[in-house]
């Protein structure tokens, strides 16, 4: 088995929410705990006791999960239960916990999968993983999401997302990114003098690579506040939420970046 070339300075506490108690919960736990930096602090077969457990951790100031891993499909539950749990976690706790949704039933040829994946990410999950690929993918996703990266997809899910992007671009005339940028800025009421136009496209590409503010800073893009100001400007320019996943999606649709720019963020 290959090793994951990732570094993490502290133990990553993980909660698993999966109704397959004797199946995927066990295999996922065994897979994750092969990495000494990952600790499973609790598992739940559904959401019933999850929220009271998290509330209790908050009240007692106990060690909290860094990542909550949620299965997408539950037997005898509503359709896309993992999406519902993701929304409820965000509603109750804002962004205190990083959420990864995973499933063993996703195939690139099922049209409704793409919509569900997009809805999960829009709801606030940091990653969507297929269990059917390399078993290291879930470990890699947990480590990267815990480290602060905004998005991670493994290959089966990437194929679905890229197919959607290609379908959206199929009928578009190819325009140079620099011209697209000029056109978008001209539509703004006024150009912010603090914003450097030449940094916009390279910065979006860094977002697409999943780099944190600290990693972008080290590459000479400026302090965290400067990156934040540019991100706000870009989100207004693209008329989307001030979330990097939203910016990346809109940037692809507007042809500011292309699919090759986001491929490097995906571990094969």
Give a verbal description of the structure.
The chain has 268 residues and is of the alpha/beta class. The chain has 2 domains: 12-166, Rossmann fold, CATH 3.40.50.2300; 175-263, Arc Repressor Mutant, subunit A (Orthogonal Bundle). 50% of the residues lie in helices and 11% in strands. The chain is built from 12 helices and 6 strands. The protein has helices at residues 24-32, 50-59, 81-93, 111-123, 136-147, 155-169, 177-187, 197-208, 213-221, 224-237, 244-253, 259-263; strands at 12-17, 38-44, 67-71, 98-103, 127-130, 152-153. A 6-stranded parallel beta sheet has the order 2-1-3-4-5-6, with helices on both faces. Helix 5 (136-147) links the parallel strand 5 (127-130) and strand 6. Helix 8 (197-208) crosses helix 10. The two termini are 14 Å apart. The model is unreliable at 1-5 and 263-268 (pLDDT under 50).
Itemize the secondary structure elements and their pairings.
Layout: E1 12-17, H1 24-32, E2 38-44, H2 50-59, E3 67-71, H3 81-93, E4 98-103, H4 111-123, E5 127-130, H5 136-147, E6 152-153, H6 155-169, H7 177-187, H8 197-208, H9 213-221, H10 224-237, H11 244-253, H12 259-263
């Amino acid at each position: 088995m290959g090793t994951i070339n990732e570094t993490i300075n502290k133990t990553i506490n993980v909660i698993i929410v999966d109704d397959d108690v004797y199946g995927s919960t066990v295999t996922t736990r065994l897979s994750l705990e092969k990495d000494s930096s990952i600790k499973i602090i609790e598992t739940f077969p559904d959401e019933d006791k999850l929220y009271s457990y998290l509330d209790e951790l908050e009240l007692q100031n106990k060690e909290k999960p860094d990542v909550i891993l949620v299965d997408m499909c539950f037997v005898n539950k509503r359709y896309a239960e993992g999406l519902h749990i993701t929304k409820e976690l965000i509603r109750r706790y804002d962004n205190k916990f990083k959420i990864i949704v995973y499933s063993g039933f996703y195939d690139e040829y099922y049209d409704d999968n793409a919509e569900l994946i997009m809805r999960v990410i829009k709801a606030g999950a940091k990653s969507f993983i297929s269990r059917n690929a390399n078993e290291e993918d879930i470990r890699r996703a947990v480590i990267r999401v815990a480290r602060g990266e905004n998005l991670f997809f493994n290959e089966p899910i990437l194929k679905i997302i890229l197919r959607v992007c290609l379908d959206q671009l199929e009928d578009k005339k190819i325009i140079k990114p620099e011209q697209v940028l000029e056109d978008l800025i001209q539509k703004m009421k006024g150009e912010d003098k603090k914003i450097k136009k030449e940094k916009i496209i390279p910065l979006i590409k860094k977002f697409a690579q999943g780099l944190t503010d600290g990693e972008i800073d080290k590459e000479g893009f400026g302090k965290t506040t400067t990156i934040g100001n540019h991100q706000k400007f870009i989100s207004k320019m693209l008329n989307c939420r001030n979330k990097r996943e939203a910016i990346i999606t809109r940037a692809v649709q507007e042809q500011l970046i292309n699919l090759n720019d986001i491929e490097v963020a995906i571990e094969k």
